[in-house]
Amino acid sequence: MTLAGHFPYWIVVVLMMVGFYVVISHGNLVKKIIGLNVFQVSVFVFYIAMGKVEGGTAPILTGQPETFSNPVPHVLILTAIVVGVATTALGLALVVRIRAAYGTIEEDEIEDQETEG
Amino acid sequence: MSMAGTSFSLAEHLPALQVVIPLMAAPVAVLIRRNTPAWSLAAVITWICLAIAITLLNRVLDTGTISYALGGWAAPWGIEYRIDRIGAFMLVIVSAIGAVVVPYARASVAREISPDRQYLFYAMYLLCLAGLLGIAITGDAFNLFVFLEISSLSSYVLISLARDRRSLTAAYRYLIMGTIGATFYIIGVGLMYMMTGTLNMADLAQRIPAIAETRTVLVALGFLVVGISLKLALFPLHAWLPNAYAFAPSAVTVFLASTATKIAIYVLLRVLFTIFGKADVIHVEDIGAVLMVLAVVAMFVASTVAIFQDNVKRLLAFSSVAQVGYIILGISLVSQTGVAAGIIHVFNHALMKGALFMAVGCVFLRTGSMSVSAFAGLGRRMPVTMAAFVVGGLSLIGVPATVGFVSKWYLIQAALEAGLWPLAVLILLSSLLAVIYVWKVVEVAYFQEPPSFRHDLREAPLSMTVPMWLLAGGCIYFGLDAETTFGIAHDAAGSLLGVLP
């Protein structure tokens, strides 16, 4: 296995770092959620790549001997995607209410208001 | 089938019912759309959960570990619910706190959450309870993640229900950090699956030792420990906790402070001792040493910060970070006494922090404030509440005849057993910091006159003081008779460490 053989995992690492960096560095609450999403997507890709078997197809029994990809990680990640969607929805809902309460979605401006009040 | 047949099978399925009952009740509470019926439903369901948990604990103590194949699919392919001593003990802690908080919540929630949202509070509360119980009961690493997210997502909602707008930013911050923690956890699980092809914890435990030295497994361990540490608010990953506890509705603070971080500690125990136990990573990879240092720093730094807080809820939140330090310190010693001291402090701290936050909630109900100055003169105006606060405070310090003493006694004993007497000194010194922050509130309550314009201050209603005193009474009862709880904790630690079956 060379660099090319690990290609999906390189994508995972890059996506993970990009997402993590956005979460940490951005002060905009919506951008933070997007960063969080990218971070989570990297994990989805990681699981999907893990289950892939070279030359394998979807595990549907057709009678002839075939190699199959491992369906378990794919199923697991369906669950994780659902969790991710729920988290994003809740996060954005919170941002909407923060915007209504503070009039801004910039972290530093919110902090200014909190230290004043 | 005869009647005997059906009742027999129902008893067989208690592990599933433990989670399914609150899980199904949550959407029912939403559909009811009325506050009082939703509260009644929550009350009935939580007490049923407690009854099931106690039954399961007794069964585990009598006949040993229960293995339950969910949906009849046998492990390791199906999801296994596996209840051993520590799991059953956690089920009882979580469901007992869950059952006690609901009666308390009635008046508190009515005051702190707007009427059109109160039934949603009970729905989210039940969902959170289902998630926490699920974590304690499952024997499957990925299923644990799902329950972790069920409990986390519902706790973000619970926190944001308060009227104070700062609860929104606190919930948002918790959401970001909690999701990073949970995502770290699934990365770790994924890496383990890659190497072993299994998600069942017992199965993982069998297969990990052979490959424990590979980089993939070590990276997995790193992700797991960091992710869970975020959830359990181990210093310095505790940044989400103080505001989340301080600005959440009082009933939510009581519930989360007593259960959510505790269940994360349980997950850490599972990873370090159940999954990686045979590989002995805590020694080989120096994780124990790292945890020990962080725990000691937490004990001192968080306690010191607590002293300078003006908001009593925030003060107690920082104290929670310090108390998590004590628990992790016990675990990091990796001896049967040490781990047992950690486990018993999980229970004891749930009792004392529950009582303390309930007392603060009562004060908030009457004064509308949580700052230290609002406590002025309450020693005479709200004697029942303040007495509970004092009992909880004494437990935090570790005064004899309270549960705090029991925890610290065993913790110091474990430190001395390990030959680390400086650690014992540090435990005693950090307790002095607790004296300062508890005294700060008690002094104002008993030695200052109440403000003259607040002559209408009176005691909180019985529906709040009775649950509060159940927990405060527990602090004294289990402080005087620690044999039962310590016996369970000691055996649980034994089976985690592989000394006992």
Quick recap:
Chain A is mostly helical. Helices cover 72% and strands 0% of the residues of chain A. Chain A has a single domain (7-116), classed as Helix Hairpins (Orthogonal Bundle), CATH 1.10.287.
Task: Describe the protein.
The complex is a heterodimer of chains A (117) and B (501). With 117 residues, chain A is an all-alpha fold. Chain A has a single domain, classed as Helix Hairpins (Orthogonal Bundle). Chain A is built from 4 helices and no strands. Chain A has helices at 7-25, 29-51, 71-102, 107-116. In chain A, helix 1 runs antiparallel to helix 2 and helix 2 (29-51) runs antiparallel to helix 3 (71-102). With 501 residues, chain B is mostly helical. Chain B is built from 21 helices and 2 strands. Chain B has helices spanning 3-12, 14-32, 35-63, 85-112, 118-137, 141-160, 166-196, 201-211, 215-232, 241-247, 250-275, 281-284, 287-307, 312-332, 336-367, 378-381, 383-397, 403-417, 421-447, 462-480, 483-497; strands at 66-69, 80-83. Classes of the chains: A mainly alpha (117), B mainly alpha (501). At the A-B interface, helix 2 and helix 3 of A face helix 6 and helix 7 of B.
Form type of chain B: globular
Structural class of chain B: mainly alpha
What count of domains describes the coordinates of chain A?
Answer: 1
Q: Greatest chain-chain interface?
A: A-B, 29 and 26 residues
How much of the polypeptide of chain B forms β-strand, as a percent range? under 5%
CATH class of chain A: Mainly Alpha
The helix fraction of chain A, in percent, is: over 70%
Q: State the end-to-end distance of chain B.
A: 36 Å
Helix fraction bin of chain B: over 70%
Mean pLDDT of chain A comes to: 88
Total strands of chain A: 0
What integer is the average pLDDT of chain B? 91
Spatial strand arrangement across the major sheet of chain B: 1-2
Beta-sheet strand percentage of chain A?
under 5%
State the assembly state of the protein chains.
heterodimer
What is the number of helices of chain A? 4
